[in-house]
Write a structure and sequence with these properties.
globular; 295 residues; mainly beta; eight-stranded parallel sheet; single chain; nine-stranded parallel sheet; 32% strand
């Protein structure tokens, strides 16, 4: 149980700049979206609207500090609105509490290199060459095979497959396709999040690499020898072909396809459904099929 002043105490503790106007002591028992406002709940307003706040006096609203007004005793105006609001929700409602350090009985774990405070879910398979860092959570029905290194505090959601063979081929003497060997592995940094039913393929002559703080959404395919640099975000249903490189802080939108060997620079933003067929320089917006650049 908490009230509005517990939120202020949290902001003070985290040294977040805020402004209030005689904040009243609203009891907070839940959080809610703007379209389903409830009393004794906390929510956020991307754009301050006095009509909404005044019509819901028992709801606590968090707004951006640039919208500060001298009215409203149920509003906290904060810097970095989105980040601050969701950290309030995460920390005060304990949403980020780590699962119990445990290997579920139906999991098959052949590796002896599993760190401390690791959770491994039901029906998950961990191969003998896999290394898992401290505090990592691996959910249910995950397969991790071959030479895979996973760093600390990662999240691997249900159904992900990491370390499977890639789709490199050549033709034999009779014209039949044969698979290129993939003896390398996958290296995943710290604080990486891999979401449900995504495939991360092992490398051919060198590892597939996903650096610290990268995120790969549901239903994505990351092919052999791809290199995702720090803070890269890949949204759902995207496909990154072999040996492509994505520079740090770049955003790969839903349904994007990236041709093999393409280099995408740092801080690149791609449009939904784009098809990248040539290199993209740093700090560029690209969109379309084929994708075109706009600095």
């Amino acid at each position: 149980m908490m009230d509005a002043y517990d939120v202020l105490n949290y902001l003070n503790e985290k040294k977040v700049h805020y402004r209030v106007n005689g904040l009243k002591q609203i009891l907070i028992t839940q959080y809610c979206p703007l379209k389903e406002l409830k009393p004794h709940a906390i929510t956020w307003l991307k754009q301050y609207d006095a009509k909404i706040t005044e019509a819901n006096p028992e709801t606590l609203f968090v707004c951006k500090i640039e919208d500060h007004t001298e009215h409203g005793d149920n509003v906290i105006f904060v810097e970095s609105l989105k980040r601050t609001f969701f950290r309030i929700i995460r920390d005060l409602f304990n949403l980020d509490a780590m699962k119990e350090s445990k290997i579920e009985p139906s999991a098959v774990v052949l590796s002896k290199q599993v760190g401390d405070a690791v959770y491994i879910g039901h029906h998950t398979f961990i191969d003998k060459e896999v290394t898992i860092g401290d505090g990592t959570i691996i959910m249910h029905n995950v397969t991790i095979q071959g030479k895979v290194v996973i760093g600390d505090d990662c999240l691997i959601e249900s159904g992900a497959v990491i370390g499977g063979c890639g789709f490199g081929t050549y033709l034999d003497e009779e014209g039949h396709p044969e698979l290129v060997p993939h003896p390398a592995g996958v290296t995943i940094g710290d604080h990486v999040k891999i979401f449900a039913n995504t495939c991360i393929v092992r490398g051919c002559l060198s590892d597939t690499i996903i650096e610290d703080h990268a995120m790969v959404d549901n239903l994505c395919h990351i092919a052999h020898n791809v290199h995702l640099h720090e803070n890269v975000q890949v949204a759902a249903c995207s496909e990154i072909s072999g040996s492509a490189t994505i520079g740090r802080d770049s955003w790969i939108a839903p349904g994007v396809t990236i041709l093999n060997g393409i280099h995408v620079g740092e801080n690149v933003y791609t449009g939904i459904g784009s098809n990248l067929v040539k290199d993209v320089p740093d700090h560029t917006l690209v969109y379309g099929n084929p994708a075109k650049s706009k600095k």
